[in-house]
Structures are given as C-alpha cells and as structure tokens.
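How a chain folds remains the central question behind the approach discussed here. In the encoding step, the backbone of a single protein was reduced to a row of integers, each denoting a local shape. We regard such an encoding as a compact summary of how the chain folds. The sequence in question and its structure tokens are set out directly beneath this paragraph:

___
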Amino acid sequence: MVGAVLAVTAAVPAAGGPAALADTGRSGGAAPPDAVVRVDGRHLLQPIDGFGFASPFQRATLIRGDRGLSPANQRRVLDLLFSRTTGVGASILRMGIGSSTPAPYDLMPTIEPADPGGPKARPQYVWDGDDAGQVWLTQQAKAYGVRRFYFDAWSAPGFMKTNADDRNGGNLCGSPGTSCASGDWRQAYANYLIQFVRFYRQEGIRITDLGFTNEPQFVASYASMEFTPAQAVDFIKVLGPTMKRSGLGLNLVCCDAANWNDAKGYSAAIEADPAADRLVGTQSGHIYGGPADAPLPSDNPHTWMSEWNPNGNTWNEAWDDGSGWAGITIAESIHNALAVANDSAYVYWTGASLGATRALIQLPAEGDGVAVSKRLWALAAYSRFIRPGAVRIAADASDPALKVTAFRNRDGSTVLELLNEATTPLRTNLAVARGARTTTYLTDETHSLDRTGTARAAGGHVAANLPARSLTTIVVTR
C-alpha cells in the first residue's frame, strides 16, 4: 500500500446502518458511485506533531482529586485523556507558566513573586515542586507515554510590565514603543522562562515546547500581556538565543493569537525577519471568532491550532444537536485545521473543568463524579490513531458533504477519517493492497469510537457504510 494510490468510492446505500467493514472482493456490476474519494499515498503533505489538550489555571488539581474526586474516577479521567486503547491517547499536553501572586484556583502562581529591584538585580525565584498540580498532571501524562509538553506564558510578572500588573494587558518593559522607569525587562523575562523550564527538569519532566505569549492582541481581566507583531519578533530575538545558550533543547512556539486572521499577521512578521524566522520552530494560533480558513503565511511546516473550544454557557454531551457545542462541531474543526489550514497539531481547550464548561470532561465543584462529552470522542478519533511523526497524504471527495483526510504513520499504517456531514448515509468501497487488514471505528450519537468491523481484503477491496452525520475512522495495516 505504501506509495500506491488508494481509491475509495462512495454511494448512497439502499438502507443505512452502523459503520461496518466487510471483505467484498471485486465490486463489478455495482451502481455508479454518488461520490468518489481518492487517497494518493504518493502525495505527501504536512507532518503531524500530534493532538492534545490544555490544562492550565489549576485544572490539574481537579483531576488530582483536590475537590474530592475518588481515586477510581481520577484513574478514569486519566485513562479518558491519555489511554491509547480506551481514551483520547493525547500526544501533546499544553500547560501554563504562571505570573500571579497570590494564586487561588483559576490563577497560576509565579516563580518570582517579588520585584528584585530592577531587571539587572538578582531574581529571587520560588519553587514548591507542585506548581498548582501541573507537575503532577505532567508526570501522569509522561507515564502514559506523552512526550510533547508545551508550556506557555500568559503574562510576565506584573513588575516587568508597563501596567505593573500581570492582568489587564500591558506590554513587556523594553519592548519597542514602551517606556518604563524600571528599565528594560526583556532579558529578565527570557531568564524567567528558562528558570521555569529548569525547575521542571528538577522534577524529571522535559518541557519540549516553550511559548512566551498567549493571545497577545487580547486584553483580559486575568493574566494577559500585549505584543504587537513587531514586538513579538523583537522578543523572539532575545528569547531564542537565551534558549540556545541554556542547552535545554527547547522548541520556540509563537504566537498563539486569539484568532486565525491575527495569527497570520504574527506569522507574516516572523517570516519577514530572517533572524526571528530561524529561531521559531513552531508557529501557532487560536480560532476564536472563526475557523482556520487558510494556512499561515509561513514556509515552516509545523503550524499548530493551539487553542479553541466552542463558546457557550451550558454543558453539552450530544454528538449532533445543532447547538454548536456538540461532538460533530469538534470533528469539523479538526478536519478544517488539518485539511484547510494544513496544521500539524490540534490542541483543544480544555481537558476537564467545572460547571457549564465546553471541556472534554465535566467534574463536580465538590465531591465525586465524571461526565463525558462527545467532544472527547471526536478528538479521540483522530488523536488515538494518527500518531506523532505521521504525515498527511492527499485525499479528496467529489461530494462536499463527505470530508476526508488521510495519514500515514511511521509504522506504515494508514488512517482515513471520513466525516459524513450529509443527512443521508453513504457506502464506501475501499481499494487496498491485497491482504491488508482494515479496521473501522464509528463515532455518532450512539457510538463513541466503537469498533464496528474488521476485514482482511483478499480481493483488494473492502466496503464500509458511513451513517449520516457521523465520523468513521478506518485504520489500514498489512
């Protein structure tokens, strides 16, 4: 199958049923297909870095059981998020670098609570080995096999900023266009970030990806800090060399703009500056306010959709109820990020939280209990099977209601994601290498990534039914 063309044909069946695979042999005499899908394994597209979720702002303490979650449900939540057999199988965990003091729930503690007296003064760092539960959750993820840990700062400590507050925006002192009586804090902030990484190394955790800004064009009442594209480029040329001198092997990520159009502006600014472009390993953006409608204007193949969930004010466990919060909405978002924006990673906001949340999992404010949304299974359909180091391969469908992406993993397996947005079912006929083993999983209102069929294609063809408004994952192995 490697290097060969896979052809998938789809036709409306006489009667719909759950997705199932069967060895059909040759399909001569079949009616002309209503839609045709082609998957070309010779046409390689973007590399895949992984899929995952964020858990900053002390969400880790909820999973740890600080509010009464039982050990059994703690393990259930961890399995749902990290297990490659029963859960999402996340391969990226995004966490926060704190700036707040004090730091009750929903804030992240700083490692430098006091102004040392100026940017040249010796900093007085403080480390408790816990970091509001983030160390614990990262260690748990590592035990499940996660190797990609992205830590991002929402703000520098307030004394480093023009507004003297880690909240409500403000700029980093020393950035172009700023004037601070206390001086230029750019290098001190870079050192702060590196020290944070070193503290995690003390705990046996290797942070792999480092970001210095989150939604830099958005002023929030919580931790937030503004960077224009020009200011971000300027700081990259401070932080990048500092990272290299540290010897920590870090990948610099920038700039996590709040919406994709703004992310394009930051990306263009980085691309226009050769020095900054060489220092940034991953370009990133969020998709609040609209989907990723085009690739970032970058030659870098590693671009991440690094944060999003559908805004709303209720908990929702449905797959497809028209609310915009349901599971199929997440499947559509992931498909769009991969197939339209050519992103190499998709990171959801957030893993588990309280109340009227659009997290994957809802936990009680006090006591025990776990509620699981179909959003989790939409992410799992991609994350569990498309592994870091995979590459997307060309795939398209003649029917716009059938959204298709295809991927080849390092182990030689091929993964097809077939998102049927139509209100009618489709039947597919998949041409594969003789003897290939094909396994299918279905996610819809009544299935949660359920295995619904396995076949070995003696005749080089297997068939699958795609129920209306469903996501079918097909894994092809030799």
